[in-house]
Description:
single chain, Beta-galactosidase, Chain A, domain 5, TIM Barrel, 5 domains, eleven-stranded antiparallel β-sheet, Glycosyl_hydrolase_97, Aldolase_TIM, starch binding, signal, carbohydrate metabolism
Amino acid sequence: MKAAAASAVLTLLITLSPTPAAAASGPAARVSSPDGRLTLAVGTTGGHLTYSVTRNGRTLVEPSKLGLRLTDGSTIGDAVSVTRATTRTRDDTWRPVWGADSVVRDHHRELTVGLRQADGRRFDLIVRAYDDGVAFRYRVPDQEGLRTLEIVDEVTEFALAGDPAAWWTPRSLAYDGDEQLWRATPYRAMGDTMTPATFRWGDGTHLSIHEADLVDYAAMTLVKADGRLRAALTPTPDRAAAVVTTTGRATPWRVLTVSRDAAGLVDSHLLENLNPPCTICQTDTSWISPTKYVGIWWALQHQQYTWEEGPRHGATTDRAKQYIDFAAAHRIGGVLTEGWNKGWEGSWADQSFTEPADDFDLEAVVAYGKSKGVEWVAHNETGASLDNYEAQIDAAFALYERLGVHYLKTGYVGQIPGQYTYSQRSVNHYRLVLEKAARHRINVVCHECVHATGEVRTFPNALSREAMRGQEYDAFSAGNTPEHTLTLPFTRMLSGPMDYTPGIMNILWDPQGFDRRVHTTVAKQLSYYVNYFSGVQMAADLPEHYAGTPGLPFVERVPARWDESRTLSAAVGDHLVTARRSGAEWYVGAMTGDRAQALRYRLDFLGRGDWVAESYTDAAATDYATDPTPLAVNRSLVTARDTFVAAMDRSGGQAVRFRPATRADRALPRYVEPRPRVTALDAPAAVESGDIVTITATVENRGTVPGGADVTMSAPGTSQTRYVRVDPRSTRTVRFQARLTGDGPVVVTVGGQRTTVRLLHTPGAVPAPANLTVTRFAGSVVALAWDPVPGASYQVFRRTADGVYGDPVATVPAGTTTYADSGVTVDTTYAYVVRAVVGAARSVPSNEVVQTTVPQPVTVTWRVRVPSTTPPADTVYMPGSLPELGPWDPGRVAMTRVGPDLWEVTLPVLEGTVVQYKYTRGSWETVEHWGEIVGTVNRVVTVTYGTTGVQLVDDTSLDPATPDAHEAVRAWIDIPG
Length: 977
């Protein structure tokens, strides 16, 4: 990879007299970014080597220790003397094979501090300062008495100043440790974390901690102690050293990406710049090409097919050809067929990566794809067995190269024997796969592997990787929150391209009836293709779910390769607007988190003249909770002077394609910016004092795309704001409710419109029920009670999702003053009022009560009957989706024998939890295997509170009519029935 501009390098050597660290403290050397805003100072504190970071004179990182702890008990970084300090400046550009931008500038100043310890050991601290961050690494030269490095851990600290907001995921060494929901807390309240971890100060400054150029080293996590974060290396379980390597090398960079706002984090190329240039670009790289792909993956996640061979095997020759036909018809470059190969039974750890399943003709499928211009994407699921994979990798990659296969998805489900997913051995394995893949002209998408560290510059065949909680969790768990999907771009995505598998059109598809859904609107799914940077983008839904959908044209046209990228607006966890250029066309993705909002963004990135804006936005009818699929598709002419609007529902979005207009486009309407306004107001002329009044406002949008605005209703003693979204050139009504009390007329104002309501005091009116209270609540029930009104029956009202009371949810007969609402869901806030009814008259509403349905713990007992052929000395275990069950550890939770062939285990579980589980005798080689309960098809139960908070899951039935999910175990995989 050649630099596009000459490099300007200035080197300055500063010679310092060796001074024992214990005899002097303070800064020894410093380096500032090219723009002078960021400064990293190196010094000593209490005999320890330290550093600090400031931006515009404000401290971001207070003096923090540096160093490496070795297995001999010593620390590189203690009792040091500074022997020299040299600086140099570099400013050049380089061209990625592919990336977010076609040209990347590498402009930094580098400081090398030579250090000597009291024991005579020598090492260097290398520091770089860029306008968008700082980084440092240790370089330990080969020297007498120090030929190898056996590093237990790092001393490296990150003592952040103040108490910034923090986004982090709990530190976990499990294989899916990165697959967690992101947490948002103050810095002081955060715990140990994975990286990247991101922070924001009150003035808008953002900082993210991560690492770069991770080679032959253990991955970094962060532990919290004494208010400071420390770099904690992933250990190797069977040895004291997390890292064993030679001297004469540098460690990975410790990186702090710093920007004035959230957008600056996303736009940074810092991690790539800290990696070496491309090592595989000396020959033809035309085979390295971003692409889109489809596959049976989403149906597998929903257990409609199986990975293993059998009657519901997904990866068959015929089905692969059907998907190839779909891909060819819709400009999609690849087809993935997970489960195409032998070895999916049991633990997945002994698969063959060259032998196809009996019903899959590998050569025929690849050839058929090539005849249609579609690549077959190979899939290698290692089952976490690195040794098995490495033993086959040369033969497998040679086979793929012979067939002309250029794309590979790897997986590492399970705990690697004797290792962690992020330990040194594992890190070296992932690099080995990239190297060998490059020799065979194969692009790699890696799932369940270590986080990216900018290595896509060095190995551009690393098209993407997972290393985060992706969209599959919406299929088999409570799912990903709207905030999670708006945190990923500012955390995980900073490390490199990520495969989130977007493109779901049938948002509410739940074929198993597990109350699962995708936690977005369709428009947000389309926005992912622009907002989430990846070298592969999946059209993840089923072909039949795309048929006839208005969003399919965008999926067809949006590219996977970009030439230029800009973040137009951003706030961590809240919203993101990204513009990317591919050739002559621009694409914009806008998305929001847990609140509906309208965002405005300028189109000054467009070139001269007219452009066609083809926009796909949440329609006025789109409702995240009940109807997330409607799309408003609009086409209009825009120029670079226009400001576009994305009016989005909760967890909603917008995707826009901008292309230069042609003469044929002259008939399109000129874009008009939506500016919703209230044009009419309606309210009752008179109501009883103390009643709840419905006020209806009509909102008009004269624009050519959906518009959104906050509309406020004001009346004496109350003010309410509703966000309303209106389709182009349409009107929409929005309702408010307010309890009006007093003696005279009341003026109600909405959006500049006014109306007056008279208040009545009718003699002998039915009195309102008093003392409405919540007597009991759980995640599935809210119980109410109130004082009686003589001779009255009652109407119970629950406030709807749009904030108003509509029809009563229940009518309670006279003599009863309680009601239990079981039509509620977990983690939702409800409001209630009750009216008394006597004859044809009814009262004004009671006092209002508000309750959030917090899930309650349920004592759940699982009872199972096992075959009489089960060895009497064996113990039955229950692995499953709960953390307490491993998750999915086949030998962690032992059950108790409670009778002949009967076993039980009792666990506390929150109500509403959907638990998937199986029974084993301690390993996946002894798992139950019968009926539908095979492979990845599991037993499942939804935990319900009921009336007592106790639940029995009875899996003892011998009746064949009982669903397999609750029938007794019929057979073990090693002991057939």
